[in-house]
Write a structure and sequence with these properties.
Layout (H helix, E strand, L loop, with lengths): L6 H22 L12 E7 L6 H16 L4 E6 L10 H7 L4 E5 L22 H14 L10 E8 L3 E5 L7 H4 L3 E4 L2 H9 L3 E4 L5 H7 L4 E5 H6 L8 E8 L2 E7 H5 L3 H10 L1 H25 L3 E4 L2 H11 L1 H12 L4 H12 L2
Length: about 350
């Protein structure tokens, strides 16, 4: 039989146990101090690009660098090909915590990013680098951008290289050629001016583009040159009409709660590695692949027609009302649409 502890010994024993429990709770608790104590955070990164796309390589490089800079406290596993969420569900997946990191196209969820969509407007950037850098500057200068990313921490925003018009069965060299054609559109802004030009826009994510062109669901698509190479569009298109019409905006965000569970040191490391640095780096890769895609399209016999300044002026008469409509729509939501647009134009050097 065990000997009973004296009352004073019992009291001392309970006190020691209680202190121990409090100490363990403090050490194992969440909050910003967690990873500073050596806790490993295994996080997922979801996106819709296929595993062979160069953005998967960029994500892997970002993950490796982050793991190295945090001494292994943050480990990221990438899930490409929309394995964890559909292309238009990625932001909500990150905001609700279904995934830790997410990358997708802003335009896949119409109306959710009214200010960010300024860079989707016609003729806002000539390269992916300039578009990406300007978009990051706008987000940093206008606090109203933060509300668009509620529930997440925006790591970097970027744009693709400028979008062109690609068709399958006939070239488009005039407005008359475009009328009545079904054209895949990546965003509401693009759909608006396509319709004004006489085409029938069909909203569709990039991962459905190839099959839609191949099966004749659409007659053509609006997309950056990069997509011609990385998504294999040069296997199904025969004509390209170059006008540098628009840029697609994209986001990389992290679930806010997951971010807040990291130490301040690791939070700073993430933001140092992301931000304008990654926006520029991503833009550079898009521009590089865009240039390579042009050469590859030529080799495969794609007929390329570049609109002259005079022809672009004619097209712009139908396209430009989209800009005024965008400003009025965003202003009507109590947001600084005019100010953001004016600043975007200033940054673009137009």
């Amino acid at each position: 039989m065990k000997k009973a502890l004296p009352n004073c010994s019992k009291l001392f024993y309970v006190l020691i146990v209680g202190i121990g429990i409090l100490f363990l709770a403090a050490c194992s608790g969440g909050g910003k101090s967690a990873s500073s104590d050596g806790e490993v955070h295994e996080l997922d990164f979801s996106h819709f690009f296929p595993p062979t796309h160069f953005m998967e390589e960029e994500i892997q490089a970002f993950a490796s660098e982050l793991e190295e800079k945090t001494d292994g406290r943050i480990k990221i596993t990438s899930y490409p090909g929309a394995a964890l969420a559909e292309p238009d569900e990625h932001f909500d997946a990150a905001a609700t915590g279904s995934v830790d990191f997410a990358l997708s196209v802003n335009g896949y969820t119409p109306g959710e990013f009214p200010l960010t969509s300024v860079m989707e407007l016609p003729f806002m950037a000539k390269t992916a680098v300039s578009g990406s850098e300007n978009l990051m500057k706008l987000m940093n200068e206008f606090d109203e951008f933060k509300a668009e990313y509620e529930g997440t921490v925006p790591l970097w925003l970027y744009t693709t290289d400028p979008g062109q018009l690609y068709t399958v069965d006939k070239p488009v060299k005039s407005l008359e050629d475009l009328k009545g054609m079904k054209i895949r559109s990546p965003s509401p802004e693009t759909s608006e001016w396509l319709e004004a030009l006489g085409a029938t826009p069909v909203s569709m994510p990039m991962n459905e583009n190839f099959e839609a062109l191949e099966r004749g669901v659409v007659d053509g698509t609006i997309a950056p040159w990069e997509a011609v190479k990385t998504w294999g569009l040069d296997e199904v298109i025969n004509y390209a009409t170059v006008g540098n019409f628009y840029s697609t905006t994209m986001f990389v965000v992290m679930n806010e709660e997951a971010f807040n569970q990291l130490s301040e040191e690791d939070q700073e490391t993430i933001m140092d590695l992301a931000g304008e640095r990654m926006a520029k780096k991503t833009g550079e890769v898009f521009d590089q692949f865009g240039a390579e895609a042009i050469e590859q399209a030529k080799e495969k016999g794609v007929e390329i027609y570049e609109l002259s300044d005079t022809e672009l002026e004619e097209w712009s008469e139908f396209i430009n009302p989209t800009i005024e409509n965008w400003i009025n729509n965003v202003n009507g939501k109590g947001l600084p649409g005019q100010e953001v647009y004016d600043r975007a134009v200033e940054l673009s050097g137009k």
